[in-house]
Amino acid sequence: MTANPSAAALTATIDLDALAHNIGVLRETSGTGVIAVVKADAYGHGAVPVARAALAAGAEELGVAHVTEALALRQAGIDAHITSWLHTPSTDFAAAVAADIDIAVSSPRQLAAVVDAAREAGITATATVKVDTGLNRSGVAVDEWDSMAVALAKAHAEESIMLRAIMTHLVRGDEPDHPLNSQQADSLDAAAADLARLGAPPQIMHLANSPAALVRPDLSRDLVRPGIALYGRTPLPGRGDFGLIPVMTLTGEISLVKRVARGQGVSYSHTWVAPQDTVVAVVPAGYADGVPRTLSGRFEVLVNGRRFPAVGRVCMDQFVIDLGPDGGGVAEGDLAELFGRGHAGGSTAADWADATDTIDYEILSAIRGRTVRRYVGGEA
Ligand SMILES: Cc1ncc(COP(=O)(O)O)c(C=O)c1O
After folding, report:
1. Atom 13, ligand 1: residue with shortest CA distance
2. pLDDT tens by residue, 198-210
3. Is the model's pTM score more than 0.70?
4. Which positions are catalytic?
5. 226 CA → ligand 1 middle, Å
6. Which of 184, 205, 241, 258 is deepest in the core (most CB within 10 A)?
7. Ligand 1 centroid from CA 321, angstroms
């Protein structure tokens, strides 16, 4: 029986040395410093330990979407620069200002709320302006840019805010040679020039996500803002892996091994029927833990170095693998690797994404539920 180091039914092993290595790759390819994007609980890897390890490995700053995510990092004692870029009218800007979070604003309304919070606290808020250069998602809308620039300059002049950065997000970062990438960089440069003319030049500029940080160093500007590549997944699968190392390996401890007779159906609706007398095993991971139900019957797991197919429906808490008539030497308590580095015939998060017509970002950030995270490497 394989020893289960976390003694949990389902374990995501997070390799902080791999994370550190990936940060090194990104610094090298981009030629500049890294804002480690740790939003969405570090893409499912755990924001606090990942943030700490990223900073220890040389990341300059941290980036998150929600202010609540930034505040959780502060509460964990992380005092690095943190930028937060997705807000609603209910966002607690007062708390963000008090915690010295760099608030990236996307509208004059958001800026006014930050200015109010800064005045109320009697301090200067650190702010970034997020410019919409074509994504038409977050970021200052084109028709609001002129009034926004004036408002930013005013807030900067009266020291309600200190304008730290100007940022934008790429539409087609995963098509690095698409002309829109350079056009967006040009638009960002123009917006920064507008602010400089108004007397409020942003101190720094950033726009590069993972793909741009890997292959478009001309877009690096002052810092790059990678997410997925930190976690060892390439956003450009057609161009090799850049030496990135997947950070998460997901394993389940086999809960039950049993015989199933030829002609017997397995799991809900009996979508798989045993073609011969066989032995099956139950893996305690289901769609409530982030194993997509649409993956049913379309993946294999690795047990003791051998691949076994998942059969029948993925359920909420479990799925079944077919061990074959001789049981494959698999015993209850053995560990099934669901995905990881893809070594020795194992699957990767990208294999799951391909099989379910999505991207590995979604697979990784969906790992949840009863999964226990186990950190290895780094200073863990
Ligand atoms: C504003 C912003 N910057 C950077 C990133 C990181 O992107 P990626 O994971 O593709 O590197 C994201 C992720 O969606 C983002 O929303």
Report:
1. 227
2. 999 999 999 999 9
3. yes
4. 39, 268
5. 6
6. 184
7. 35
